[in-house]
Amino acid sequence: MKSTAPKNNPTEVDWFSLSSVIALLCFAPFIVYFFVMACDQYQCSVSQPLLELYSGETTLSAIWARSPSFTWGAAKIYAVWVGFQLFLYMCVPDITHKFIPGYVGGVQDGSRTPAGLINKYEINGLQCWLITHAVWLANAHYFHWFSPTIIFDHWIPLMWCANILGYLVASFAFVKAYLFPTSADDCKFTGNVFYNYMMGIEFNPRVGKWFDFKLFFNGRPGIVAWTLINLSYMAKQQELYGHVTNSMILVNVLQGLYVLDFFWNEAWYLKTIDICHDHFGWYLGWGDCVWLPYLYTLQGLYLVYHPVQLSTPYACAVLALGLAGYYIFRSTNHQKDVFRRTEGTCAIWGRRKLLTSGFWGVARHFNYTGDLMGSLAYCAACGAGHLLPYFYVVYMTILLVHRCVRDEHRCSSKYGAGWKRYTDAVPYRLLPGLF
Ligand code: NDP
């Protein structure tokens, strides 16, 4: 297809973005390490290591020396895991869409890229998730090839392996963008090497016709792993205490619902900002390999060290909050999806329409509000003993507020006066009356 918008003229990066990028590149791996280490060495207290460091009771090198290091055993587990996901993604075309009513899988079109390409994707995430979890359950209850606590038992050595893969993927994507880009017209060069490395140059890097970096790394080693990690934490609780707490079940159920929703709607994911606007670099590559599996699962990890048993009314309140958040999240996304697939797809005088009714008339990013309610529910399931499990909702708030700002900046230039009319009619972003 003919390119319509070549994007490889270098663009300037402001000093604020550049310093944020360099800070993240330097500190993000240590943030992940800090939380996991705090659980391993300080029973998930985030203040204790800081206080001990401040008072001189311990040193950074002592903390580092106590941390489990890289092991070849963990490397083998990780290689089998990534290899298995790669096999499922590349070699097992989707058949579930043929017999699950209402599910959209198989070969689907992505959105039009800035250069005018429409990529095809093999949507088989639900099938990969089902097969992976069927193997996991069959092993736990029947075959016993490996312990169901295997992930927890190698958690820190696996983190080093995930970091190696994350940096390799990001570096490969960076070099590939210069040497053999998939679509040269979709590359974005900023003239700053750190920014290019972190935020990515290529839009939809691929190897061959079907291996898509964004779809694979976000969905497979990232989101398929999420529910398996939680199951491993649940098995560890059972092993250590002889029972599983209701808080652990809540976290598994609510996050399991979110993960299943993602795979059920994987075709919809092709239309989200990650795929439609972000370029693939360290931010997505390393983030999918390390940040997502390690920090999105902190609640389950915490509950292994602190087996909180919630009162029934409190547990019901958390469940209600999580389900209400999920309902808002899913309905809002669904309303836009239906709107875009029906009359909202047409362009009038070159402009697409904006939805101003339903949840999109309550606030301009009510899908984010639902997501944040769900995030708060996961954290609240851990009770109020420690700060660590609440990291997730703090992080999601920063992520989604930042997304609001950058998305609105883009929408304002894309829709012009139409966006102004929309923001006048729907003045709040996340919470009517507040923000
Ligand atoms: P959205 O699905 O909200 O997409 C924003 C885009 O929607 C805009 O760029 C615009 O695109 C279109 N749009 C905005 N307002 C309107 C309107 N009124 N009518 C019609 N179209 C409109 O954002 P994301 O892709 O960021 O998020 C998708 C979901 O994923 C969210 O629910 C979010 O919570 C979740 N998410 C979760 C993350 C996690 O780590 N757990 C991370 C990021 C997102 P256009 O003009 O091209 O149609």
From TrEMBL:
<dbReference type="GO" id="GO:0006695">
    <property type="term" value="P:cholesterol biosynthetic process"/>
</dbReference>
<keyword id="KW-0752">Steroid biosynthesis</keyword>
<keyword id="KW-0153">Cholesterol metabolism</keyword>
<feature type="transmembrane region" description="Helical">
    <location>
        <begin position="126"/>
        <end position="143"/>
    </location>
</feature>
<comment type="similarity">
    <text>Belongs to the ERG4/ERG24 family.</text>
</comment>
<keyword id="KW-0443">Lipid metabolism</keyword>
<comment type="pathway">
    <text>Steroid biosynthesis; cholesterol biosynthesis.</text>
</comment>
<feature type="transmembrane region" description="Helical">
    <location>
        <begin position="240"/>
        <end position="260"/>
    </location>
</feature>
<comment type="function">
    <text>Catalyzes the last step of the cholesterol synthesis pathway, which transforms cholesta-5,7-dien-3beta-ol (7-dehydrocholesterol,7-DHC) into cholesterol by reducing the C7-C8 double bond of its sterol core. Can also metabolize cholesta-5,7,24-trien-3beta-ol (7-dehydrodemosterol, 7-DHD) to desmosterol, which is then metabolized by the Delta(24)-sterol reductase (DHCR24) to cholesterol.</text>
</comment>
<dbReference type="GO" id="GO:0016132">
    <property type="term" value="P:brassinosteroid biosynthetic process"/>
</dbReference>
<dbReference type="GO" id="GO:0047598">
    <property type="term" value="F:7-dehydrocholesterol reductase activity"/>
</dbReference>
<feature type="transmembrane region" description="Helical">
    <location>
        <begin position="280"/>
        <end position="305"/>
    </location>
</feature>
<keyword id="KW-0256">Endoplasmic reticulum</keyword>
<dbReference type="InterPro" id="IPR001171">
    <property type="entry name" value="ERG24_DHCR-like"/>
</dbReference>
<keyword id="KW-0444">Lipid biosynthesis</keyword>
<protein>
    <recommendedName>
        <fullName>7-dehydrocholesterol reductase</fullName>
        <ecNumber>1.3.1.21</ecNumber>
    </recommendedName>
</protein>
<dbReference type="InterPro" id="IPR018083">
    <property type="entry name" value="Sterol_reductase_CS"/>
</dbReference>
<dbReference type="GO" id="GO:0005789">
    <property type="term" value="C:endoplasmic reticulum membrane"/>
</dbReference>
<keyword id="KW-0521">NADP</keyword>
<keyword id="KW-1133">Transmembrane helix</keyword>
<feature type="transmembrane region" description="Helical">
    <location>
        <begin position="15"/>
        <end position="36"/>
    </location>
</feature>
<keyword id="KW-0753">Steroid metabolism</keyword>
<feature type="transmembrane region" description="Helical">
    <location>
        <begin position="375"/>
        <end position="401"/>
    </location>
</feature>
<keyword id="KW-1207">Sterol metabolism</keyword>
<keyword id="KW-0152">Cholesterol biosynthesis</keyword>
<keyword id="KW-0812">Transmembrane</keyword>
<feature type="transmembrane region" description="Helical">
    <location>
        <begin position="312"/>
        <end position="329"/>
    </location>
</feature>
<keyword id="KW-0560">Oxidoreductase</keyword>
<keyword id="KW-0472">Membrane</keyword>
<feature type="transmembrane region" description="Helical">
    <location>
        <begin position="155"/>
        <end position="175"/>
    </location>
</feature>
<dbReference type="Pfam" id="PF01222">
    <property type="entry name" value="ERG4_ERG24"/>
</dbReference>
<keyword id="KW-0756">Sterol biosynthesis</keyword>
